[in-house]
Design brief:
The protein is an alpha/beta fold and 282 residues long. The protein has one domain: Purple Acid Phosphatase, chain A, domain 2. 20% of the residues lie in helices and 22% in strands. It contains 6 helices and 15 strands. The chain has helices at 28-31, 43-57, 79-90, 180-190, 199-207, 247-250, and strands at 2-3, 10-12, 18-21, 61-64, 96-99, 116-118, 124-126, 130-133, 148-151, 156-161, 167-176, 215-218, 229-230, 260-263, 268-271. The strands form 2 sheets. Strands 7, 8, 9, 10, 11, 12, 13, 14 and 15 form a 9-stranded mixed β-sheet that branches. A hairpin with a 3-residue loop joins strand 7 (124-126) and strand 8. Helix 2 runs parallel beside helix 3. It is globular. The structure holds manganese (II) ion. The site of manganese (II) ion has 6 residues, from loops.
Length: 282
Amino acid sequence: MNPVIPYPALLLKGADRSLIISDLHIGWEASLAEQGLHIPSQAPKYAERLRLIIKETDSARLIILGDVKHEVARVGLREWGDVPSFFQELLEFVEEIYVIPGNHDGNLEALIPERVKMFPVHGLTIDHKVGLIHGHAWPRPEILGCDTIILGHLHPMIRLLDAAGFSTTHQVWLRASSDGEVLARKLLSHLGRKLEGDAGDAMKRYFNVTLSNPHCIFIPSFNSLLSGQVLNRFEGGARLGKAYTGPLLRSNGIQLMDAEAYLLDGVYLGRLSDISMTGKFT
Ligand SMILES: [Mn+2]
């Protein structure tokens, strides 16, 4: 499993080479019109970028980890046209497309061609090793038995500020460790399962899942114009917008502040908790 530098895309090697991306937010540009910004849809540009990446990585499958479109519950006027033509274009150069819906994907079924496979919001696992989920909903229990969980939803960014007050904001990859026991406890209680003894035994008994302490990888959004969450907003630690975290992060079972942050070009920045806006990057 490797990030495809310098793109916000991950290549999952194996029998079927899958390219994983997240958070396209098709329709975002249209929503900016209210602020006086009139930008044409960037969807054709993203399709072209994906064509190049898929060719370069020889991927047989594209997996989109949610937030294909931008309007949360309804389908925006431009989305009716932009989303179907985006998928039609992709299907010309990739054999299979999987979509795991995000919180912005209300009514997405109406817009995607039949050949695109939609999965439940609870995500899916590949070879029992990699769990895939957008991040706004609880995962299916099997995901807690994986070595790695790949998530979107956060749109992670860091902001660097220099002594003159100039700043830059960069999209980042995050790699965090987790405590499977904590995650499983919260999941079991969410599912209304009685917990006697440790959560690992209960996961085995109820779901035949061998609990793991998965590494969690948060993918930067594929839409490069999109806004994101600056995770080093305050010195000494970040503060997440509550609505934009999801149950896994809210369970406190993922050590997000200790996550390793990488720029899209692969440069390692350090751990999130060590990157302050006015710290070592000034
Ligand atoms: Mn999103």
